[in-house]
Amino acid sequence: MLSFEDIKHTYHGSSGDVEALAGLTLTVEAGEPLALIGPSGCGKSTALLLAAGLLVPTGGSVRVAGRPLAKPRFATGLILQDFGLLPWKTVFANAELGLRIRHLPRADREERTRRTLEQVGLADFARNYPGELSGGMRQRLALARVLALEVDLLLMDEPLSAVDALLREGLQDLLLALWRERGYAQVLVTHSIEEAVFLGRHIAVMAPRPGLVAALIDNPNMGVVDYRSTSEFFATCRAVREALGEAESRVDSGGALQGGKPPQGGEALGVQGKPHQDGGALQAEEAPRSEDEPHAGTSHA
Amino acid sequence: MRKLLGYLASILVILLFWQLAALLIDSPALPTPLATFPMLVRYASQLAPDFLISLYRVLVAMAIGTVLAMPLGLAIGRSPRLDTLFAPLLYILYPIPKIVLLPVLLVLLGLADAPKIVLIALTIFFQVSVTVRDAAKAVPEGAVLSIRSLGASRLDVFTHVVVPASLPELFTALRISSGTAVAILFFAEAIAGSTGLGYFIVDSWAMINYPRMFAGIIAMALLGVVLYEAFDVLERRLTRWRMV
Predict the structure, then answer these.
(1) Would you say residue B20 lies in a domain?
(2) Do A72 and B160 touch (CB under 8 A)?
(3) N or C terminus of chain A: which is more exposed, having fewer CB within 10 Å?
(4) Half-sphere exposure (CA, 13 Å, Cβ side) for A149?
């Protein structure tokens, strides 16, 4: 669905050039949810803008649906950190915007917008303005605007960072449910390890300055019932955390990007490595284990 | 209703200070409100056509200036290339008081409405284009990127994002420049022609009829209020989202 092939990107700023990405290679299969995590400055957001066709890389090529990407395509949805909602348009008009730009017939437009607003629970606020909504509601509106279109690739840049912690899990559940229903490929850029593990079938850990993928962690149990309270969830979180620490220490130790040091934890940095042993059928998993030491049981062995 | 009460209270305060000042200064050049109001009533039928023609000139001039300035301001605000081209031009021409062109315009356009309208339109044009350019520059990038990711064309970006984002600044510019517009109108009407409130005021001055002159000044204040209120109504209609 989406592939980055040795992407390099350098910003030419007034205070000199900034190399944001140095050889990013990453593939997202159709229908697959990927989480992109990394310290600030690792080029996550740049990668997302490249995938949306809003930036052209200074080196390498971005391919979407088998073709090199030259400009934004209709079937890609993008949700930015600040949602990019238009404060002068009502909730309904915001959700309808993509359809209007595509010049759909009015009746069709309104019908689809209404359905999507219902799906994200904003039907009663159609005539309000974004300024009257809470952070979580704005987030859902941003989702609705993209979902009103039939997308096969959804890109999100820290979509939940402006939402308070209590609402976050509910919105993560919503994202999961919508992904399940629609089956689009999804790239979620996030700062939160738990969010990455909850919503990423694969988790790409990026190293900063300049950015590239330092580790790709497999997360086969993503999406199982009550995943957050399983030991596999905690084990994967730990693996991501260790990979992140490793990615940062490469920069600190100056051994930039050679990746010469062996990972201390053993299991974490083995790219593609499985952080836990029983990758299999977790669907049958009944109750969350009592979790005083959530990861100890599974991460080694 | 509240607004009306506000106006009434303000008028009372102004009249009170005016009365006090007139009593203290005690000069025929500053008649009391009590002496002025009978004049206002007496000359109402003479004032009305002058009021209307002045209002017509300001409104038409402001509309022309705005309609011409909006596209230019929006375009150079969103295009760095056009900005490098046009910004210096604006910076050189903007600070020149356009009133200095009055003699030229009088020679070229005669003494009727045209020179006054052109002069005011020029002033409005520069104020609006500079303000709108800055507003268009400051449009949140997230909104632009988001709508472009939805497949928006350049025109879509302007109609859905840049124009509505710039409207509040446009109205601020119009309100601020309506003061300048009325001042220019007064000057132009006082110098050339024999119509409009500006002419009415200097004409009264020439007749040493100060109460009549103040009746004209009151009409001029009313003209300003009409302009402000018109912009208020228009702004409320066009930027409803800001009232929530």
Answers:
(1) no
(2) no
(3) C
(4) 29
Tokens in use for A59? 């080196």
The CATH number that applies at residue B188 is 1.10.3720.10
Q: What digits encode the pLDDT tens for the residues A110-127?
A: 999 999 999 888 999 999
Q: Do B150 and A72 touch (CB under 8 A)?
A: yes
Could you tell me if B185 and B57 are in contact, meaning their C-beta atoms sit under 8 angstroms apart? yes
A153 interfaces chain B, CB cutoff of 8 Å: no
The DSSP result for A1-35, as a single string, is: -EEEEEEEEEEEETTEEEEEEEEEEEEE-TT-EEE
Give the side-chain half-sphere CA count within 13 A for B179: 4
CA distance B75 to B133: 8
Residue type (1 letter), A50? L
Cβ(A291)–Cβ(A231) under 8 Å?
yes
| A132 close contact with B: CB closer than 8 A | yes
Task: Check if A162 contacts B (Cβ < 8 Å).
Answer: no
Enumerate the residues of chain B whose CB falls inside 8 A of the CB of residue A79.
Answer: 146
- Reported ipTM exceeds the 0.85 cut: no
Dist CA A62 CA A51 (whole Å): 7
B-chain residues within 8 Å CB-CB of A77? 149
Q: Which domains does chain A have, with CATH numbers?
A: 2-75+152-299 (3.40.50.300), 85-149 (no CATH)
**Predicted pLDDT of residue A253:** 52
Q: Are A240 and A193 in contact (CB under 8 A)?
A: yes
Residue B196 to residue A283: CA distance in whole angstroms = 85
Residue owning tokens 């009590």: B34
Look at residue B55 and tell me if it is in a domain: yes
Domain that holds residue B53: 43-243
- The residue of chain B nearest to residue A72, with distances taken between CA atoms, is B149
Rounded Cα distance, A52 and A75, in Å: 10
Round to the nearest angstrom and report the end-to-end CA distance of chain A: 35
The predicted model scores a pTM of: 0.77
B26 in a structural domain:
no
Q: Phi first, then psi: what are they for A160, rounded to 5°?
A: -110, 10
Is A69 strand, coil or helix? coil
In a domain, B56, yes or no: yes
pLDDT number for residue B47: 93
The residue count of chain B comes to: 244
Closest Cα in chain A to B155? A101
Q: What average pLDDT does this structure show over B165-178? A: 92
Instruction: Say whether residue A77 is in contact with chain B using an 8 A CB cutoff.
Output: yes
The whole-angstrom separation of Cα B227 and Cα A299 is 74
| Overall number of domains in chain B | 1
